[in-house]
Amino acid sequence: MDVLHGHPLAMRVVLSKLETTAPALLTATLKSNSAQLDGDEQWDQVQATIRLVVDAMRPELQPLLDLVGMHEAYVDGDYLEAMAGQLGPENTRERVDEALAALATVGLVRELGQSVYEMHPALTGFLRERSPAEPCARAFVGVIGALADHYAPKELHEQRAVFGYHGANFRFALSEAERLGSEEGVSALTQALASYAQRTRDYSQAERLYEQLANLYQSGGNAKGEAAAYHQLGRVAEERRDFDAAEKWYLKSLAIFEKQGDEHDAASSYHQLGRVAEKRRDFDAAEKWHLKSLAIEEKQGNEHGAATSYHQLGTVAEERRDFGAAEKWYLKSLAIKEKQGDEHGAASSYHQLGIVAQERRDFDAAEKWYLKSLAIEEKQGNEHGAAVTLAQLGVMARERGHRIDSGRWFLRAFLAFSKSDPHNAQRVASDFFATWRTAPGDDKSKLRAIWEEADLPWPEDAQADAGDAPG
User: Fold this and answer.
1) Which runs of consecutive H residues, i.e. helices, occur in 360-440?
2) Do the Cβ atoms of 300 and 261 come closer than 8 Å?
3) Taking CA atoms, which of 7, 260, 282, 392 is between 20 and 30 Å from 460?
């Protein structure tokens, strides 16, 4: 045990070998392996121990170990099988399972379920020193690149698990793809990593990766890919609220799409330029861009795109307080969404129609629209969307002088926001207590009872603000 320096991994490996190998021989092998190394003594001992395991595995399994070594943190047996198959038909699933089982027995990998294995950090470092042959690297890049490409367009909740397991593998595959000169691999992996960075709000990383992607496509003469990368850079800048940069990127993208006669993608750029103009409150420009987008969508029979443009034109009209025009655009958008069975989009239109009706003081119509929106949001489990509508119902009830109803809506909105949006939860709570403070005595008591029946503490500052608050 002195030879092992008490290292748990080394001790586990050696204990597993004592059943078939004499202690003296094990000791001699470990000392021989350590003598070939020249670094930290305990680290060298770990490396020597891993060598003991690897050298004892059948020669037929060695190419599989090279593939394992290209992974970091996690390796998936199913993907490893796909890589191994590219090296030759003899690399069967049975061999993959044998190699992983041998590593698992001594604690170098640990099965988590569904063929996913967590790797000991030392294993990757040791195996990468073996300098695997180019076919292994190409197989790794091909399979991991295809995985990344599949998840690049997915929403964040769909990306989280695969990037949690394979984020390090995606990054290493990208470096290998660059080394191998695989433009397809580089573009797929860069796109996926950029997409995930954008969705997790790592905007600096997303910007760096999309710029690399644009340069890659530009040097390869892929104008469509270059324009798409510029478009994504515009989205990143827009999310950062850097509207000057967003406009610059969208216009660069648009110039390429227009030059190529690509009406569909040009319409997307027009749409985003319209959104940027809205956020700058330049509603004349916003209307111009949205109408240009709409003209293409109607010409091409793209009803979904047209519905989106109708909705944005409704938003522009609403901001201008032209509620008649806003209602017209929202209803045109809604007609398509209902026809296509787009419940999520319909809920958004219902909500906006509720706002328009509320602005016109047509509270009965507004309530009808809000409740239609709320029904879909609750059906779909969209808690945030439901909370927004509940809060709006609270505001409207207060405007109508219905303080108890207002308090109930605000309370439901608060409970929904509390699960994911503390800022809006606090805002809605403030609305509840503002309603309470302006209520007559009997309504004050009822509102406090509503709050406390939800097992929520009554804040001391609410009483202090009110003066005549109930005790």
Assistant:
1) 363-379, 383-399, 403-417, 422-437
2) no
3) 392
